[in-house]
Design brief:
single chain, TIM Barrel, 2 domains, eight-stranded parallel barrel, two-stranded antiparallel ribbon, 17 helices, 13 strands, about 15% strand, elongated
Length: about 475
């Protein structure tokens, strides 16, 4: 079957759970914007993440979002101050969702685990436990990272090859699901008259011995309420996409354009089908970074403030900030634009005569800045060199605009079958509150997002069926 044929088939399928798009929040307590913590009133102390997590969770659950997603990185370094401040110090994801399980009641909670550095038995045990305590609201993102600093924290001298890491991740997921199936639903008979607590036939030994991972089992936790907490895979590499299509319930993706997203969506669904799966049971969720205001002009103003907060080189070769990354310098901007920038000051407006000499990459940056800020070369609100440099340095799926603008963007991608939903990044907590307060009700008004939770588990929210126990006689291994 060609991808074109599959694309036509996909277009006729029910899209999203009950025809609705999925919305979740990617939690970064210090914000997803490199200097969002500098914004007035923004959270800026990870030692007080308890309060920040509670605020984000309340806002997200109040808006009816289906999940909160906690990414992870198993190392830290000073340069994260300039690139990803939330990576400097943060709550471990399983601990975070365990805390939030106690103070929320409906929203799904997705934690990241590394198949390279975590043990599948302890991961199965922790996640099953939190799934029980949260009444079925847990999900896992399984990563197979190759970052050397993280590897060294776990005693690795070398990073394992991609093929080995993907194969190990596949075995990791297989073990998780097998261990979650250790107990039949009716294994605990609790017969008071006979004194028999369990039916031993309802307890199953996994006995898996793979090339990279092994686990005997059984798990010492009952089967989770969801059977298997949903598993997501992140990764754009071909082997990661194939792993997701074979084994995952969800794939988190980051296409750059609508055309790329539509093509990637059709290919991913076709790949899942080629592995004998129902494409409806394999979801693609896209990251999005909305900067929203009551009006378009309000949103442009917020974006301008965020741009002003990013530390960059003010005058060429005279950095005022220690450790400033190379992509924040005027020298790099000059290279990208394809013109000399001798003697400029970063907050000067770009002259029209200079912009006419920009390279293709420079002209693209101008388009990006105009889309994000409403500024134009030669206009009443001119584009500054700072705006160009920040657009080059901060690579993210940013959409700036009014409630209508942001809702239009989400609707366009959803209706074009470019995605099943979105994971929302925010510059700081107040911006997420504004997204929840402004955009989500507009999506509901358009019939794109449910007005209330449908079901109680994360699988319910995602429109995924509860899998049969793999040890049941009717199951096919």
């Amino acid at each position: 079957m060609t991808f074109r044929a599959v694309a036509i088939k996909v277009a006729g399928m029910a899209h999203g759970p009950n025809g609705h798009l999925i919305l979740g929040a990617t939690v970064r307590t210090l914000g997803a914007w490199p200097s969002g913590w500098r914004y007035p009133g923004a959270h800026r102390d990870p030692r007080d993440d308890r309060a920040a997590l509670a605020r984000i969770a309340a806002s997200a659950e109040g808006a009816g979002l289906q999940f909160l997603y906690f990414g992870d990185w198993l190392a830290t370094s000073p340069e994260f101050e300039f690139t990803d401040p939330y990576l400097l110090a943060r709550i471990e994801p399983l601990a975070a969702i365990g805390y939030l399980a106690a103070i929320t009641s409906r929203i799904g909670l997705i934690a990241t685990v590394s198949s390279s550095h975590a043990e599948p038995y302890s991961t199965a045990r922790s996640s099953a436990s939190i799934d029980i305590l949260s009444a079925g609201r847990v999900g896992l993102v399984v990563t197979s990272g190759s970052e050397t600093q993280s590897a060294s924290n776990f005693g690795w001298r070398n990073v394992h090859a991609d093929a080995d890491r993907i194969a190990a991740a596949s075995e990791f997921v297989h073990i998780l699901r097998g261990l979650w199936d250790s107990w039949d639903e009716d294994a605990f008979i609790a017969d008071v008259d006979t004194g028999q607590l369990i039916d031993p036939r309802g307890l199953h030994v996994l006995g898996f011995d793979g090339q990279h991972r092994s686990s005997t089992g059984p798990l010492n936790v009952p089967r989770p309420p969801q059977g298997h907490p949903p598993i997501a895979i992140v990764g754009a590499a071909e082997n990661s996409r194939d792993l997701a299509a074979r084994t995952a319930d969800v794939s988190f993706v980051s296409p750059k354009t609508l055309r790329d997203a539509v093509d990637g969506y059709a290919r991913a669904k076709a790949l899942a089908e080629s592995h004998g799966r129902d494409p409806d049971e394999f979801l693609l969720l896209t990251s999005i970074f909305p900067i929203v205001g009551e009006t378009r002009e309000d949103a442009w103003g917020i974006y301008d403030e965020l741009v002003a907060l990013v530390p960059v080189e003010i005058v060429a070769d005279r950095s005022e900030v220690d450790g400033l990354p190379a992509n924040r310098t005027i020298r790099v901007l000059s290279s990208v634009l394809g013109v000399p920038l001798t003697g400029i000051v970063i907050d000067e407006v770009v002259p029209d005569r200079l912009a006419q000499r920009f390279s293709d990459a420079g002209r693209h940056l101008v388009e990006v800045v105009t889309a994000r800020s409403g500024r134009t070369i030669g206009g009443s609100r001119g584009i500054t060199f700072r705006h160009l440099l920040v657009a080059h340095a901060v690579v993210a799926p940013i959409v700036v605009g009014s409630t209508q603008d942001v809702a239009d963007h989400l609707e366009t991608w959803f209706r074009h079958r470019a995605t099943d939903g979105f994971t929302v990044l925010s510059a700081f907590a107040e911006q997420f509150d504004d997204f929840a307060r402004l955009v989500v009700p507009e999506l509901t008004r358009r019939g794109l997002f449910p007005a209330e939770y449908r079901g109680s588990t994360l699988r319910d929210h995602l429109g995924l069926e509860v899998p049969a126990n793999s040890f049941a006689p009717r199951a096919v291994l």
